[in-house]
Amino acid sequence: MFTDFLIRTFVKDYKNTVNREVRQRYGYLSGFTGIISNIILFFLKISIGLYLNSIAVMADAFNNLSDVGSSVVTIFGFMMSGKPADKEHPFGHGRFEYIAAMVVSFMVMLVGFEFVQSSINKIINPDVLKFDIFTFILLLSSIVVKIWLAFFNRKIGKTIGSKVMEATAFDSLSDVIATSVVALSLVASRWIAVPIDGYIGLAVSVFILYNGFNLTKETLNPLLGAAPDEELVKAIMDKTLSYKGIIGIHDLIVHNYGPGRIVASIHAEIPYNMDIMEAHDIIDLAEQEISEELGLHLVIHMDPINTDDEVVQNAKAQVIDILKDFPQDLSIHDFRVVGKEKHMNVIFDMVVPYGFKEKDEKVLVEEVKQAIKKRHPNYDAIITIDRQYSLLK
Predict the structure, then answer these.
(1) pLDDT value at position 127?
(2) 195 vs 179: CA distance, rounded Å
(3) Cα torsion 40, 163, 151, 212: sign
(4) CA 200, CA 54: separation in Å to the nearest integer?
(5) pLDDT under 70 in the chain at which residues?
(6) How many Cα atoms occupy the beta-carbon half-sphere of 329 within 13 Å?
(7) Rg of the chain's alpha carbons, rounded to an integer?
(8) Taking the chain, what is the end-to-end CA distance rounded to the nearest angstrom?
(9) H or E segment at 379?
(10) What local confidence, expressed as pLDDT, does residue 267 receive?
């Protein structure tokens, strides 16, 4: 397969996709392949468009030219993302990949806007489109090339987990549809007297805009701080709980600083009476092994939990039961008790669900306090609002 041949030839140590230099080589291969392919397609299509005086074909040609720019941005993005961490960016420059993908999506939309205007002008001032079998065959050839580029970039994107490659693959696939529409308009011109070139060009332009908008949304999410992948969250939680002595977890936070640059933190609950040195060794071992296995940097905070005090366990169970009466999906952690049974301060963090408004936090806290006080007059609740930062609790 030609794709595999290119990867084996130009990507040294191509199986080691965790290595940043290998990821860069994949990015460079995709970028230079895109530049060469799209320059050839541009000159072919612009020649056909000028010969046929077709705005749809020329729109498609300049769409390929914009793809050259996209490939340049891809190369630059991988070049910058591969820079090592420095004083100003202690977590590296991995998010340059996301920025590059965003620039690619903007370039796609810019081309769409340009040719909406050209297509409308063509509709107002139409020219007769003439069919030519040679040009039709060239258009079909470009479709084949773009289909290969789409699968080529998609495979690289899945191999190295790159948003830029996914955006580039989607862009190539949209070119396939756009060129196919242009080719069909040429065929239709043999039997349809009405000049449809401008309308086809407008349809292609709108399609380009639509794809550009979708690409923008896809690449914006990681820059804004999208929720971490559920499989990664579950893996971190399951592996942390698998260590002897860790009886509970909460407050998992995952930060994505670019592909292969994930920093996570989690609170691990351990029995309060466990030997402190033993607990420290367990936490250190878990941090090291999970970080290596999942390819991230994990920091574990140790929370001692009272597991054998009946008063504490009973109070916790009562509070959990009270929270079931609230419509929100509420959970608690870091529960502790200060005082005697006649008067106790029950202290805990209460986790509110996604979408819960900050302005309503104080009201909810007061409602929970009153509900606890009503059922247990000897309890005074001290509540800290916490938020859920991962898709699983």
Answers:
(1) 66
(2) 18
(3) negative
(4) 10
(5) 56, 127-131, 193-195, 341, 391-393
(6) 7
(7) 29
(8) 44
(9) strand 379-387
(10) 92
Angstrom distances, CA of residue 6 to CA of 153, 168, 304: 12, 18, 54
- Token pair recorded at residue 325: 């009466």
Helix spans in the chain (H)? 2-10, 20-52, 55-81, 96-124, 133-160, 163-188, 197-224, 230-241, 276-294, 310-323, 361-375
Q: What is the structure's pLDDT at 370?
A: 94
Cβ pair 150, 172 in contact under 8 A: yes
User: How would you class 111 by CB atoms within 10 Å of its CB: exposed for 0-12, middle for 13-18, buried for 19 or more?
Assistant: buried
Token pair of 30 as six digits: 């995709």
What global pTM score does this model have? 0.68
CB 54 within 8 A of CB 90: no
> Which pLDDT score, from 0 to 100, does residue 373 have?
92
Residue type at 170? F
Q: Is 191 helix (H, G, I), strand (E, B) or coil?
A: coil
> Over the stretch 283-334, which tens digit does the pLDDT of each residue have?
999 999 999 999 899 999 998 887 778 888 889 999 999 999 998 889 898 8
